[in-house]
# Entry
Amino acid sequence: MNTLTLFDRKWNPFKEMDELQNRLNHFFGTPTPTRANDEESMAPARWAPLVDIVEDEKEYLIKAELPEIKKDDISVKVEKGILSITGERKFEKEENGKKYHRVERSYGHFTRTFSLPDDADAEHVKAEFKDGVLLVHVQKAEKAKPKQIEVSVA
# Structure
């Protein structure tokens, strides 16, 4: 009688889920963190800051979380209807006597781009940096008000 045998190791459902996640990451083109000896890698993942976008009657407000990033390491540009926020969070260099056991925060260069809506005024964009949050104010263009045209009788 033929018998189906598995390897001499116990089935680990978490390893199966991890392998599925790796396959999905590969399929969607997302980098997969490498593992050495089933231990988590110290290499940080690619990252992009989280943003909130809020609209009121006067403007659009984009709030980007940029903790531990200096103002000089951030750039905000508007070109051809695209708002770009770029910057870099630099990794703290290891000091003598300190050993990192885990690095979960991501470091390196980032870019976030947003298409501006038709009613956004690309000429009136202001950015401010406060408490680790970048605030980008994009004013709305004044709408063309209906113009009353007088009809004259000939």
